[in-house]
Amino acid sequence: MNRILPVLTILLAIIAIWYAASVWMNAPWQTRLNERADLANVPFTEFVAQTWAQDKPVLPSPHQVAGEIWNATIALEPTSKRSLAYHGWITLSATLLGFAFGTSLGVLLAVAIIHNDASDRSLMPWIIASQTVPIVAVAPMLVVGLNAVGLTGLVPKALISMYLSFFPVVVGMVKGLRSPEGIQLDLLRTYDATPWQAFWKLRWPAAMPFLFASMKVGIAISLIGAIVAELSNTAGGGLGVRLLTGSVNGQTVQIWAALFIAAGLAAVLVAVVGRAEHMVNRRMGVRA
Amino acid sequence: MEASSLGLTFPAGDGDIVALSDVNLTIDKGEFVSFIGPSGCGKTTFLRAIADLEKPTSGTLTVNGQTPENARKDRAYGYVFQAAALYPWRTIEDNVALPLEIMGYGSADRAERVRRTLALVNLSGFEKKYPWQLSGGMQQRASIARALSFDADLLLMDEPFGALDEIVRDHLNSELLKLWARTEKTICFVTHSIPEAVYLSTKIVVMSPRPGRVTDVIVSTLPRERPLDIRETPEFLEIAARVRDGLRAGHSYEEVV
């Protein structure tokens, strides 16, 4: 109970501020609408209700967004092109594939970097430079370019996700694989252990906490990568497309609904990685 | 183990650091040799040179009649570090089995050796525990078991009880003597405690810093059987006084700015 109470309090506060903000932000437009309709002296309570029920509000009220989420998921067939479950699944599959690519690439690069001084010096600057390029600029070129060589659908989107998500994994795993102390490595040297043995018996298990911390960041930005990639290929569907069409048509309620679905998806994905971490920790005897 | 005019210099930006200079020493099989001196006297460096963790820059050093590198590849010694350095994700038995896994012992042989060495350090019953569930003294005992598990003749110990409190240390010292008597191993033991060195050793090597060198080698006249209260006998105090004199002769007590 003493954990739920603060969370609920904050949630209620956010919803209250949101309702107030949507009155404030939608008020100018509502005033003009009422003037056009020659409605004078609208009572305040009715005016508030009007601002919460606009068709294309500047800031939709929470119940409008909740209603849209309900209508676009539970109330619709999941195969419908208007269903957020349908679009969410498209985004999720690109996210997961990209995350798998990105994590594998990140681990491989980290292994190369820690075992080879030359690759440390030659790879790391490029890896860092890759992340300074704005992804919204890279994504369309990649999607269009891959389309030209016949690669369409899921893979180009997953590649954008990979482009973002490998980075925290490289950085975390380089640190993690280098985390064993000097005496741990000296100990293996006294056993005349091979580098291969040192990797699997010491470096890899020692890097686990770093891997999971990186993967939590990685899976969240994989989702962002997938959404950005979808903006470049509106025919393919996905939450990104819903965001785009919503903003083109001024459908703010639709935008907010898609945003919440995306945020919820990210939360679930991070929680799944956290759960996996917990299971690995238990197997590794980490103090609870 | 034999060292003659052994020297080891670490290169440093502002002039090289001479960690060891002209060290001559012979250690016979079955001896318990302590290296004592203030920090910076090269005692740990000497131990690490025996273990082929540092390369001497001059002189010769042989372990079991071969180079330290070949001795290491032969798995001629077990090394116990200042910290227990157990893997936190392995249980005690799996930690002790680590060198055996690396050296390719079969699983039945491994289990038998783990059981035997854990019994040797009085840790039977703690096989399935993780390191954090054990006290500092028990962790260090587990690390000694790990060094013993593959039956090397030589045991190199670098201030293994330095981080433990005196009561635990006394207890482990007498345990170590019993262990030494039972296993008949050669032990090289680095310490900065005079009573510990005198209590344990058949030979005490007194070292002093800048440059790191041997100032005295004292052969103990104490009997091999040593109860803890031997430390109050005149003979014990006499040897301790000699060690102290040796340290003083090496200017080890002088304040260095």
From TrEMBL, chain A:
Its main location: membrane. Gene3D superfamilies: MetI-like. Keywords: Cell membrane, Membrane, Transmembrane, Transmembrane helix, Transport. The keyword Coiled coil does not apply. Residues 84-274 form the ABC transmembrane type-1 domain. PROSITE patterns: ABC_TM1. It comes from the Bacteria. One of its GO terms (cellular component) is plasma membrane. The keyword Transport applies. One of its GO terms (biological process) is transmembrane transport. The chain crosses the membrane at residues 7-25, 89-114, 126-148, 210-233, 253-274. It is a multi-pass membrane protein. Belongs to the binding-protein-dependent transport system permease family. This is ABC transporter permease. It comes from Devosia aurantiaca.
